[in-house]
Amino acid sequence: MSRVLIIIITLVYSLNIYSQTPRSAEGFGERGLKRYMQGDYDGAIVDYTQVIDLTSRLDTKDGFSPGNSFAESKSSDATLWRKNVRVIDPRTADAYLKRGNAFFAKSDLDNAINDYNRALDIVPASAGVYFCRGTAWLIKKDLDRALADYEKAVKFDPNFAKGYIGRGMARLDMGEAKAAFEDYDQAIKLSPRDTTGYYYRGDARLQSGDREGALLDFEYALKLDPRCANPYLGRGTVRFYNQDFAGAINDFSTAIDLDQRLAQAYRNRGYAYLAQGMEDEAEKDFTVAVTMAPLLGPEIDAKVKIIRSWRK
């Protein structure tokens, strides 16, 4: 789960759409993005909802009603959306995508998927939205839907490196390791200076038991960009498995310093603290991690029992 939470948080994706957005909507959009980057996901959701309110309306049986916004519609019927939505500004789709990402960051996957659906109703050939929706399906363990969305992402944009990363994650979870590594390699080929492909290939190598190969990918990513948080998270995990707990804590702390939104870094540092008998520090980190990403709770509870059994 940790790897798929990271990829949305680190992806600030915008649709390339010409905007006729009113200045007030642009202001809400700018503030929403700032709040999102600061980890204020509730505030971002409020702002993106304002953008949607200002840039779209629903038609009613009595005709166009400016007081009946698309944002207020509670229907999950995609056919109803297509029939009734009147998009004043095509950047409505962008606001749905970004609000969906904010819901995703809060682990509210159902609302995230609803927003991605609405974005696709407006812009049906968006590789980025298919990628985001596929990642939500991946966390929900709906691997068939996840794979289908990633397939559409690379179909609509064959040069979209993150689409291959997503498809690689789905294939890895389906037990198709060879195909997964081919996707990671393709992502790296398309974006050889982007640390993302190396991080996720390293994560896949780590999952397959190849710690040495994983460390090579994480180290190379750090050479490309020493200010990127995720490779420190990966290298710290390798060090944790190698029982270098002090080194692991150092890497996880660096990742947190670089990106305080990484719930997984708090979680993993908590594990390392616990392995060293630093119970108070570990509990603080677990609290932060679960507050940021509630889906991590059961995983942490299970791992804590295992680590405590090591120390007996």
Category from helices, strands and their pairing: mainly alpha
Strand content: under 5%
Mean pLDDT: 86
Helix content: over 70%
* Low-confidence residue ranges: 16-21, 60-69, 74-78
For the record, give the distance between the C-alpha atoms at the N and C termini, rounded to a whole number. 28 Å
Largest sheet: 3 strands, antiparallel
Shape by Cα distribution? globular
**Strand order across the largest sheet:** 2-1-3
Helix and strand pattern: HHHEEHEHHHHHHHHHHHHH
Radius of gyration: 21 Å
Number of helical regions: 17
- What is the β-strand count? 3
Structure description:
The chain has a three-stranded antiparallel sheet with strand order 2-1-3. It has a domain at 1-108. It is built from 17 helices and three strands. The protein is mostly helical and 312 residues long. The radius of gyration is 21 Å and the shape is globular.
List the helices and strands and how they pair.
Elements: H1 2-9, H2 23-37, H3 41-55, E1 56-60, E2 63-64, H4 78-84, E3 85-87, H5 92-105, H6 109-122, H7 127-139, H8 143-156, H9 161-173, H10 177-190, H11 195-207, H12 211-224, H13 229-241, H14 245-258, H15 263-275, H16 279-292, H17 297-310
Antiparallel strand pairs: 1-2, 1-3
Helix pairs in contact: 1-7, 2-3, 3-5, 5-6, 6-7, 7-8, 7-9, 8-9, 9-10, 9-11, 10-11, 11-12, 11-13, 12-13, 13-14, 13-15, 14-15, 15-16, 15-17
